[in-house]
Write a structure and sequence with these properties.
CATH superfamily of the largest domain: Alpha/Beta hydrolase fold, catalytic domain
Number of helices: 10
Strand order of the largest sheet: 1-2-3
CATH topology of the largest domain: Rossmann fold
Strand content: 5-15%
Helix content: 40-55%
Order of helices and strands: HEHHHHHHEHEHH
Length: 160
């Protein structure tokens, strides 16, 4: 948002693990349902945390497969806030905004990140006029899985 409003003040932009897509592309029904649950029912947060903090591996696996996010992130976050953020990301009109960004941009995403893969989240990456796009063979947690490689990519990008 700041880059769009004040492009001369932002020399370079770094975007990590963000699904940028056309809202008209549609979202999986399961995502819409999970977001609706997370926004409307407070108990969802308690249930998710109880399962993730338990010793029930089967239930943990079910949660990991149902919700396309890093379980550690869900364990330490408020489900309603996460759901509202996801709702905004999926509904936001990105096409116009991404095309207007002229700044040098580094975009990093995980090829196994279900929040990006299942929602066509890389759809608008090509709309950035001056972008370098890199992918990592991991989920949403690039800094956790590849901290050195990500840091190296960021430093090279900043120094370039």
């Amino acid at each position: 948002e700041y880059t769009i409003r004040f492009p001369k003040e932002v020399e370079k932009l770094i975007i990590i693990s963000v699904p940028l897509r056309n809202p008209k592309s549609g979202s999986p029904l399961s995502y819409k349902f999970l977001i609706w649950l997370g926004v409307n029912f407070y108990f969802v947060d308690r249930v998710i945390k109880k399962i993730l903090n338990s010793n029930h591996q089967y239930l943990k696996t079910v949660i990991k497969n149902l919700i396309p996010m890093d379980p550690g992130f869900l364990k330490n976050s408020d489900a309603k806030s996460v759901a509202l953020c996801c709702k905004d990301l999926l509904a936001h009109n990105w096409p116009e905004e991404t095309q207007s960004i002229i700044n040098k941009t580094l975009i990093a995403y995980g090829t196994k990140d279900q929040a990006i893969v299942r929602t066509h989240g890389t759809e608008l990456y090509k709309h950035f006029q001056n972008a370098k796009i890199i992918s990592f063979a991991c989920n949403h947690s690039i800094p956790v899985k590849y901290p050195k490689r990500l840091a190296r990519e960021i430093l090279e990008f900043i120094e370039y």
